[in-house]
Design brief:
The complex is a heterotrimer of chains A (about 180), B (about 300) and C (about 425). Chain A has about 180 residues and is of the alpha/beta class. Chain A is built from four helices and eight strands. Chain A has a single domain, classed as 3-Layer(aba) Sandwich (Rossmann fold), CATH 3.40.50.2020. Chain B contains twelve helices and nine strands. In chain B, helix 1 packs across helix 6. The chains are: A alpha/beta (about 180), B alpha/beta (about 300), C alpha/beta (about 425). Chain B: Pathway: Pyrimidine metabolism; UMP biosynthesis via de novo pathway; (S)-dihydroorotate from bicarbonate: step 2/3.
C-alpha cells in the first residue's frame, strides 16, 4: 500500500531546537562531558550524533568523540527477511570501556533496534553506562526500553510511519508523519 | 540485497553485482577481526558443515573461524580421497548430513564440477571451497579484496598470474573475477602448464615470465601443484625455478609499487624465492586475513537472508 | 516364423530400389512379396493403415551395447531390444564388451538364443577381435562367425596395436566379416573427461584432444590400405577424422565409418551449460560446433556411411556421481530416429532417402546382413515413421534400463510409428505389442 505524507510535525528550526535542548540535558545529567562519547546508529542516528557532539562542544568548549554503529549483525529478524539488510561499517574511534556512551537514533518505536545496539556495544567493551537519545519517540514498545533524552513525543497509530529527513542523508530537513492508504 | 543464486560455485557464473556485494559486506565485517572479543551473534543456531575430500589447512580453518566469529556452529568432515570411490557416494554422504540439520555445506573436492553436482543433490546451499582444477571462488574473492585494499581499484590494473595455470582452480577464479571487474590479466608459465585456448578468457598468455611481469601492478604467483603432475610437464623443480620462478631479478620488471601475492602453501625456492616471499612487497599474509572476512561475508549472505 | 502383413497407403522410400511413392507393401511369410498400388489383401491378412506415414526398410543400429551377459543392471537383451523396437530399429548389432567378453562362440550363441527367446528385433552379435579384448591374441573369430557373429571389434577400446589390427584384418578375409575399430589413441586421451579446448579449460576437466581419435583413424586407414581388409570406423567425431576418411576414399582404400546422433546434435558447450551433467560424458567426447558442422556436411556429401547410436545404457548409480567418476555413454536407441528427422531431415540437410541409406541400407551392407531394402525377397523388416508426431523426450518412458540421456525434455517432431520384423508388428503407434 502506498504511503501518503499526512503532516509535517517538525521543521528545520524545531529539529535544531530539540537537539540543543537534548544537548543541555546531557550536560546536566552527566555533570559535564567527562568520558562522554556519542554513538550514532546507522544511518540517521549518525548525523544526529555528530550534530549533538558539535552542540555539546560549543556548550562545554570540549571535543566529544563520535562513533558509528551498524546493528545489522545483531538484528533478531535476520533469517526472516528475504530482502537481506546490507551490513554497514561499524567504526568507533575510541574504546567504549569505562565511557558514558550516548546512543543516538532518529526514531524510537518497538525498541528492537536499541536492543540490538546495546548488544553490539557490549560486545565491544564494558561502558560505565549507556544512555539513549532519540529525536522522536512514537510509542508502541515491544520490549522494555526507554529513552533518556527525547526530542519530541509523537503519539501514533501502527498504520502510521514517521519519516525523519536530514540534510546529510536526504537533502531536506523535516519530520513527517505519513499513513498507508488504500488507493481509490 | 541478497545474492542471486542458492550457492556459491564459481566466479564465472557470478555477476559483478554479487561480487561487489560480497566485497562490501566483507569490508564491513573485517572490523570484527580486530575486536578483543571476536564474536557477533548473527548466525546463531546455524550449522556450517565443512566437507573436505582433499587435505587443506588454510581454507578449512578460514571457513571455520569465519563461521565461529559469527556464532554459527561448525562440523568438519575430512575424508581421504583414496577411500571415496570405494566408500559411500558423495550424494549419500551429503544427504545424510542434510537431514541432520546442517544449513550450508562448504566442500573441497578433487574432481572438477563436484560442487555443481552437490548443489543438484542438496536443497541447502553449497559453497565451493575448491573443486579439482575448476574454481575456488572465495579465494578469487579474497584476492580481489586484498588487491582493492592496496590499489583501491581493479579496473585498468595490470595483473600477472604466473606458473601452473593448467592445474590451478585459483587461477581460473582469479581470471574470471578480475577480468569481470576490468583488470588486464596476463598469464605466464611453461606451455605444458598453460591450458589450451586460455586467451579466449580475455587474458594474454606468455611463455616468458618477464613479458607478463613487465609493468604489472600485481604479481600473482601460483602454487606449483606437484601432487597433480601426473606426466612429464617440466623437467625439474630447479629448472622451473630458474626459468619460471619469481625472484628479485624478475620482480624488477614490475611497477615500483607492485604487490606480490600467493594463495599458499608456498613451495619456497620453486615458484617463488624466499626473499621475494618475505619482502615488503609481499601481501601474502594480508590475503589470509582477507580470507576470513570474505568467508564471513559469504556465509552471512548465503545464510542470513532466507526463510 | 514369418508372418503376413499388408502395409497400406504409406509413402514408401527405398533407396536401393530408387523407390519414393505411395505404395502398399505386402509381406508374406516374413518376406517382402510385392510393392504396388491398391493391393487387395487375402482374407485374414493383417492390414497396417499407414496413410500419412513414411515406410522404409527396417533400420539397423550397427553399434549398441546390450550389456548382457554381465551388466544386466545397466541393460539386458530384453530391455535393450524393447528399446530398439520403440526406437524404430528392426535389428541391432551388439558390442562384445560384456562380462564374460563375447570372444568365443558360446557367448555368441547365448546372445542369439536369448534374443530369439525375447523375439522382438534381430540381434547381431559382434565378437571380440582379441581374447578378453586384451589386444594381444586373436580370438576364435572363425568359430564365432559360424555361431552367428556378423563382425568383430574390441569396442570400448581400440584394437590395441597396428600389428594386431593388421593380423586381424588379414585373417578375417577368409571369413568375410567386417572389423569395427573404436579409434582412440589411449596415450593421448588418458584421463580425459571431455573434449580438449576452451570448454575443458573453463571446466577444469582433463581434455581429450581430437588427435586422440585422428591418430587412430589415420593408423586404421593405413593398415586397411596395407591389408585391403574390410574396416569400419566406429563413431568418428571430428573434422580431422572426416578429412582422413576423405583421404582414404580418394585413394580407394576400403574403409567405412559411422557417426552417432549425439555427435551430430550436441557440442561440448553442454558440459558447461548443464553444470557438469554426467549425461554429457561420452567417449569419444562431445566436440566443438566446428566438428559438428563438419560431420553434418560429410553426412550430406556421402563421406559418412552410417548413423549408429553407440547406445550405452548405464545405471543411475554409474551417473549420479562426480564427473570424473561417472561412466561414459548415452542411452541412444529411443531418441536416435527422432533426432535425425528433427535435426537433419526437417532442415533439409539430408533427404528421407539418404536417411534410409544411413540407418538401413548401408549398415546392412557393411555388416553383410539381410535387409536394408524392400525389394521383393528381402526380409519383411520395415520401419514406419510418423513425420508429424510432436513430443518431448521423457526419460521415464524409456524402455531401456539406461535413462542416461542428455536429450531429456527436448521437443522433437517426427518419430518411429511402427516397427515390423519379419512381418510381425512389434511396435505400433509408439507402443510395444508384446
Amino acid at each position: 500500500m502506498p504511503l501518503f505524507d499526512k503532516a509535517e510535525i517538525m521543521d528545520k528550526d524545531a529539529i535544531r531546537r530539540a537537539l540543543v535542548r537534548i544537548a543541555h540535558e546531557i550536560v546536566e545529567k552527566n555533570k559535564g562531558l567527562d568520558n562522554v562519547v556519542m554513538v550514532g546508529i546507522r544511518r540517521r542516528g549518525v548525523p544526529l550524533a555528530q550534530r549533538l557532539a558539535k552542540i555539546l562542544g560549543e556548550i562545554e568548549n570540549k571535543e566529544v568523540p563520535v562513533g558509528e554503529l551498524d546493528i545489522t549483525l545483531y538484528r533478531d529478524d535476520l533469517t526472516m527477511r528475504f530482502d537481506q539488510p546490507h551490513v554497514g561499517r561499524t567504526h568507533l574511534p575510541f574504546d567504549v570501556a569505562k565511557k558514558k556512551v550516548i546512543l543516538v537514533d532518529d526514531v524510537l518505536y518497538t525498541g528492537r533496534t536499541v536492543r540490538a545496539a546495546l548488544d553490539a556495544i557490549v560486545d565491544l567493551g564494558r561502558p560505565e553506562c549507556i544512555q539513549l537519545a532519540v529525536l522522536i519517540d512514537r510509542g508502541h514498545r515491544e520490549i522494555p526500553i526507554r529513552a533518556d533524552y527525547v526530542g519530541k513525543n509523537v503519539p501514533t497509530s501502527r498504520k502510521e510511519v514517521i519519516h525523519v529527513r536530514l540534510t546529510e542523508v536526504d537533502g531536506v530537513e523535516q519530520v513527517v508523519i505519513s499513513e498507508e492508504k488504500d488507493e481509490e | 540485497m541478497a545474492l542471486k543464486g542458492k550457492d556459491i560455485l564459481s566466479l564465472r557464473e557470478m555477476n559483478p553485482e554479487d561480487i561487489e556485494l560480497i566485497l562490501s559486506t566483507a569490508r564491513s565485517l573485517k572490523e570484527i577481526l580486530s575486536r578483543p572479543i571476536k564474536k557477533v551473534p548473527t548466525l546463531r543456531g546455524k550449522v556450517v558443515c565443512t566437507l573436505f575430500y582433499e587435505p587443506s589447512t588454510r581454507t578449512r580453518t578460514s571457513f571455520e573461524l569465519a563461521a565461529k566469529y559469527m556464532s554459527a556452529d561448525t562440523v568438519s568432515i575430512a575424508t581421504a580421497t583414496s577411500s571415496v570411490k570405494k566408500g559411500e557416494t558423495l550424494a549419500d554422504t551429503a544427504r545424510n548430513l542434510e537431514v541432520m540439520g546442517i544449513d550450508v555445506v562448504v566442500m573441497r573436492h578433487s574432481v572438477s564440477g563436484a560442487c555443481h553436482f552437490l548443489a543438484k543433490v542438496l536443497d541447502v546451499p553449497v559453497i565451493n571451497a575448491g573443486d579439482g582444477m575448476h574454481e575456488h571462488p572465495t579465494q578469487g574473492l579474497l584476492d580481489i579484496f586484498t588487491i582493492l585494499e592496496y590499489k583501491s581499484k581493479i579496473r585498468g590494473l595490470k595483473v600477472a598470474i604466473l606458473g601452473d595455470v593448467l592445474h590451478s582452480r585459483v587461477a581460473r577464479s582469479d581470471i574470471f573475477g578480475l577480468t569481470k571487474m576490468g583488470a588486464e590479466v596476463s598469464v605466464a608459465g611453461p606451455n605444458t602448464l598453460l591450458p589450451p585456448e586460455i586467451e579466449a578468457l580475455g587474458v594474454k598468455a606468455y611463455n616468458r615470465v618477464e613479458d607478463a611481469v613487465e609493468g604489472a601492478d600485481v604479481i600473482y604467483v601460483l602454487r606449483l601443484q606437484l601432487e597433480r603432475q601426473t606426466k612429464s610437464l617440466f623437467p625439474s623443480k630447479r629448472e622451473y625455478h630458474d626459468f619460471f620462478g619469481l625472484d628479485r631479478k624478475r620482480l624488477r620488471y614490475a611497477k615500483e609499487d607492485a604487490i606480490v601475492m600467493h594463495p599458499g602453501p608456498m613451495n619456497r625456492g620453486v615458484e617463488i624465492s624466499t626473499d621475494v616471499a618475505d619482502s615488503p612487497r609481499s601481501v601474502i599474509l594480508d590475503q589470509v586475513v582477507s580470507g576470513v572476512a570474505v568467508r564471513m561475508a559469504a556465509l552471512y549472505l548465503i545464510l542470513g537472508g532466507r526463510e | 516364423m514369418g508372418k503376413d502383413l499388408l502395409i497400406r497407403g504409406g509413402r514408401v522410400i527405398d533407396p536401393a530400389a530408387k523407390v519414393d511413392e505411395e505404395l502398399d507393401v505386402l509381406i508374406l511369410e516374413g518376406k517382402i512379396a510385392r510393392l504396388d498400388k491398391g493391393i487387395t489383401p487375402q482374407e485374414g491378412i493383417e492390414v497396417l493403415d499407414s496413410r500419412g506415414k513414411i515406410v522404409m526398410p527396417g533400420f539397423i543400429d550397427m553399434h549398441v551395447h546390450l550389456r548382457e551377459p554381465g551388466f544386466e543392471d545397466k541393460e539386458d537383451i530384453e530391455s535393450g531390444t524393447r528399446a530398439a523396437a520403440m526406437g524404430g530399429f528392426t535389428a541391432v548389432a551388439c558390442m562384445p564388451n560384456t562380462d564374460p567378453v563375447c570372444d568365443n562362440d558360446s557367448v555368441v550363441a547365448r546372445i542369439i538364443k536369448r534374443a530369439r527367446e525375447v523375439g522382438l528385433v534381430r540381434v547381431y552379435p559382434i565378437g571380440a577381435v582379441t581374447k578378453g579384448r586384451q589386444g594381444k591374441e586373436l580370438s576364435e573369430m572363425g568359430e564365432m562367425r559360424l555361431a552367428g557373429a556378423v563382425g568383430f571389434s574390441d569396442d570400448g577400446a581400440p584394437v590395441a596395436s597396428a600389428e594386431v589390427l593388421r593380423c586381424a584384418l588379414e585373417y578375417l578375409k577368409r571369413f568375410d566379416a567386417v572389423l569395427i575399430d573404436h579409434p582412440e589413441d589411449k596415450s593421448l586421451s588418458d584421463g580425459g573427461q571431455m573434449n580438449l579446448g576452451l570448454n575443458s579449460t573453463i571446466a577444469g576437466l582433463r581434455g581429450i584432444p581430437r588427435e586422440a581419435e585422428e591418430v587412430a583413424v589415420a593408423r586404421d586407414i593405413l593398415v586397411a590400405k596395407l591389408t585391403g581388409g574390410k574396416l569400419h570406423l566406429a563413431h568418428i567425431s571430428t573434422e580431422g577424422s572426416v578429412e582422413l576418411v576423405r583421404y582414404a576414399r580418394a585413394r580407394g582404400i576400403r574403409v567405412t565409418c559411422e557417426v552417432t546422433p549425439h555427435h551430430l546434435t550436441l557440442t561440448d558447450d553442454l558440459v558447461i551449460e548443464s553444470g557438469y551433467d554426467t549425461n554429457t560424458k561420452v567417449n569419444p567426447p562431445l566436440r566443438s560446433r566446428k566438428d559438428v558442422e563438419a560431420l553434418k556436411q560429410a553426412l550430406a556429401e556421402g563421406v559418412i556411411d552410417a548413423i549408429a547410436t553407440d547406445h550405452a545404457p548405464h545405471h543411475i548409480d554409474d551417473k549420479w556421481v562426480e564427473y570424473d567418476y561417472a561412466e561414459s555413454g548415452i542411452s541412444g536407441l529411443e531418441t536416435a530416429v527422432s533426432l535425425m528427422i528433427d535435426r537433419l531431415v526437417a532442415p533439409g540437410l539430408i533427404s528421407w532417402s539418404r536417411l534410409a541409406e544411413l540407418m538401413s541400407l548401408n549398415p546392412a551392407r557393411i555388416l553383410g546382413v539381410p535387409g536394408g531394402t524392400l525389394v521383393p525377397g528381402s526380409p519383411g523388416d520395415v520401419t514406419i515413421i510418423d513425420p508429424d508426431f510432436e513430443y518431448s523426450v521423457d526419460l521415464r518412458k524409456f524402455e531401456s534400463k539406461g535413462k542416461n540421456s542428455p536429450f531429456a525434455g527436448w521437443r522433437l517432431t517426427g518419430a518411429p510409428w511402427a516397427t515390423v520384423v519379419e512381418g510381425r508388428v512389434v511396435m505400433k503407434d509408439r507402443s510395444l505389442l508384446s
